[in-house]
Each structure stands twice: as C-alpha cells, then as structure tokens.
Fold this protein.
Amino acid sequence: MSAVLEVTDIKKSFGGIHAVNGVSFDVREGEILGLIGPNGCGKSTLFNCILGQLTPSGGEVKLDGKLVTGLRPSELNKLGVSRTFQLLQVFPKLSVRENLILAGQEHQGNMASRLVGRSDAGLTDAANQMIGFFKLDHLADEPAGGLSYGQQKLLDAAMAFMGGPRLVLLDEPAGGVNPSMLADLKERLVAINREKNATFVVIEHNMEFVMSLCSRVMVMAEGKVLAMGRPDEVRKNPAVIEAYLGH
Amino acid sequence: MSGFAKPLKIALGLAVVAALIVVPMNFNRYGLFILSQWAVMSIAAMGLNLTLGYAGQVSLAQGAFVGIGAYAAAIMTTHGWPLPAAILVAIALSFAVGWVLGYPALRVQHHYLAFVTLAFSTLAFLVFRNESWLTGGIYGISNIPRPHIFGIATNKPLPFYYVCLGSLAIVSLAVWWLIRSPWGRAFMALRENPLRAQSLGVDTRHYTLMAFAIGSALGGVAGALYAPLTQYIDPVPFNLSLSLDLLMMVIVGGAGFYFGPFLGAMIAVLLPEWLRFTEGYYLMLYAIAVMLLLIWSPTGILGILDRYLAERRTKAASALRAVAKSRLETAQ
C-alpha cells in the first residue's frame, strides 16, 4: 500500500516550548490511523501543521509524494484533505442542509460559475444523502446552532466528507458524544472508509473507540512519537503504559 | 421572512413596488427629494449590509465610498460625460479602493478593523476637502446635471426619483442574486466561522476582499446618484457621520437581513422628517427611539420579526410532535 501522507521531522515551537519536536510518520492509503497521547502532547498542533493552519518551524509534509508544506488550509482542502475540529465548528445560523452545501460548494466549478450558476451549486441531492447517511433527516432545515452537542458533532463530521476527500483528519470525534450516537458515528466512519476508500487519521482519548476502529495507532508524548503499531501491540508497550494508558 | 406563504409574499412585494411607483406622483418637490434620498441611501446601506451584515466585516468607511462615487459622477458629468458612464467609473473606482481596504481585514477584525476603516474615512474626507484642483475643495462642485435616460430629461424631481428607484430595483435584484448564490453562502461562512470555512476549501482571502469590494462598489453607485440628486456637492455630507448613519441604518433595520437596509434607510431618512413637528426635540426623540430599539432587539427591527416567526415555527413543530406522541401512546 502506498503512502497518502508522509510527514517528515515536523517541528513547531511557540517561544521556548517545543509543542511538536520532530515527528515523522506516514499514513497508508485506505487505513485508519489512530493518534493518542496525553493532553498537551502536541496532537492537535501536529494536525494544524499538517493542515496549513499553523506554519511548522521545520520539516515537511507530502501528499501523494508532492510537497504541500505551507499551503493554505483552503488549498489543501481542494487537494482532498479534510478535517473535523476538537471543539464544535459549524455555521450556527445556517441550516443543517446549508452547512453541508457550503462544505461542498468550493469543490464545484470555479469562482465565476459559483457566482452566476445554481444557488445550491448542484449539491442539494448530495447534501440530502449525507443528511440521511448521518440520520439527521428531521433536522435538515433547522439552524445548526440549535442542534444538540452530539448532533453538531455528527454534522461536523458529515461536513468533512462533502467534498469527497481522500484523507480526513478527525480531532476527537467522540468527545462529548453519547454512547449510542458514538456507535452510529463509528459505523458511518467505517462505511465511508470501506466504500469510498477514504483514509483517516483520528485523534481520540476514548480507547475503546480507537482500539476498535483503527488499524494502526501512533502514540505521542511531549511532542515526539513514542510508539507506532497495531492496537494490541501499542496497548502492551511498557513506555505507552507508563506515559499514557496507566497501569 | 420564511414564515409567510409564498403567494402572500409576492403579493406584498408587488403592492409595495406599485405604491413606490404610483403614490409619489402626487408628492411635492420636497417629498420627492426625501424619497429619492431614501432610495439612494438604501443602495449604500445594502452595500454595507453585504460587507458587515453578511460577511461580518466591520466597516466605518461606507460614507467615504458614497463620497468617491459622488465626486466621480460630479466631475465627469460636469465635464460632459453621460451619467451611466460616470456610474460605471464610480463602481470601478470604489470597487478597486474597497478591494485594497479589504487587505487590513485579512489581518485584523472587529473593533481594530473598525479603526482602520475609520482612518480611511477621515483620509477620504481630507482628500475631498484639500485637493481643490480636483474636487473644488470646500466650495464643492455645483450645477451637476441630471441625465437624459432614453432621450427623456430627468431634470424634474419625479423623473429623477424614477431614476433612483430604477437603480434601487437593479441593485436589489443583483444583491438578492448574490446572497443566494454560493458566494453569499461563503460570505456568511466568513461571518459565522472563518476557521471552519478555510478547512472546507473556502478561499477566505478572496471572499473577504470581494465582500469589501462589492459592498464599497454599491456605496459608489449610491454616491453617483446622490450627486445629480442634490446637484451640488461639497465634502461635508461625506464625513464620518455619514458612515455612522449608514452603519446605524444597517443595524437598526437588521444586519444580515435582506430587507434590513430598506427599513433602516427609511427610518434614518423619513423619521426625522415625521418628527419635525417636535421642532428642537426631534433628534433627541430619534436617539431615544434608537436606544430603546437596540436594547429591546439588538438584531434590529427584522430581528424582532425573525424571532417571532421562529417562535411560531417551534410552537407548531412541538404541537406536531405532541400529536404524534399521543397517537403512538394510544396505539400501544
């Protein structure tokens, strides 16, 4: 399997703090890679460096073998890299359907056609399908800000898939989501992974979720990679138990 | 406005348009001037509503763009150019300047951005006042001609009112198209959550600059109509207080609501006239009315309507749910 994403020696410092201190890994086509580690170990900073939201202090990021370090988030997204956020990031005053159309519209046509063309950019059907897929049917016309926390999390995830991404970075998708909704979310992620051959990197603290979803798990501590391997290997790794999982 | 049935909305719209065409036929010179001013200010406020209400970019410079448009039109038409050509130049000029003014918005937001645009507003005023070789300085430009449209002279107040109203109609349609296009959605995304928008491929730089440029261009259009309306311009009407007036029109009407600027401009232009009988007190009454409105409804007049309609919708929805639930229970 070829690597979709190759990260080499990424570093990010804020003043004297080395939030990410030389992280290298690759993500294989079609896999679900878990990313775990204690709070403040640099997981989200690493995501932000990969996605162009932060400029790394050093190192490089390659997408399909092409250097993409320093590209803007919107440019990366157009190349097929999508994400969800740790904290809720929806458009509260737009309806659920409008949120989804917005999430896909910049992948349709060009600036001119988006000005003179159809108001939904031809995405109403795709948005409705996504709404059905994430079981948000009864909320389609509600403003996203009126949804419950868990429902907004689902919407956030659904938005990440509207542009038909190849690679999705999910930052704590399970945080604050109730168990039954979580089972739903996992089922959806697995389905998209299999059917669309989308590759995922998932930051998560919910061990059960990570261990059952991911094919490989990477553990970070203090800005560095502590371990990388199959979930059962990582779980038994003494260094990981020491730093994160506990005895 | 989503709570009304569609035919009712269309009927209401047609009635308002018909009234705007027919009723002023009996108005005197002054009444027509005020109504023309309403149309012109509505155009400028619609531009600001796009920048501020939809795209969420604070601007205290809309009055300066009205000035740029007005001076462009005054200078060109007094040198024999036709008004439509002057309007095109006013659009191009304020679009370009607005685009450049958008660059600070890529770095600073909210009240910092307000200060940047405020400084620009002052700068524009100084240019209007001091560059007398171009603008006539404090003496201004007089004898600004009114245009011939399709061979019809619009010197008289009524024909020129129709010029303003027609322009307002064209701008309204264009803005309506824009805000329901994917561009409009991207503007709202800038306002609601620029971080998320970026990660969904929304080129926030492009849309921020465009929000400024297009909003400013509408200010230019308004200015290009204001000059032949008053037939005399000097720098004073385009100082900071016009920018603040336009900001108030947008906020009072309801920022981010399509009909907000029409309503806001109506209140700002007409209310002082209606309150004239109170003589010295009208500005005070006006100020108190605005304060009370904003305490009661920070989202403006259309915000009140929106809240009412949302409440009604929620009540209807929970009533439906209650019915469905009771049916389920009886079935069991």
Remarks:
- Residues 81 and 176 of chain A are 25 Å apart (CA to CA).
- Chain A has one domain: 3-245.
- The first strand of chain A starts at residue 3 and ends at 14.
- DSSP finds ten helices and ten strands in chain A.
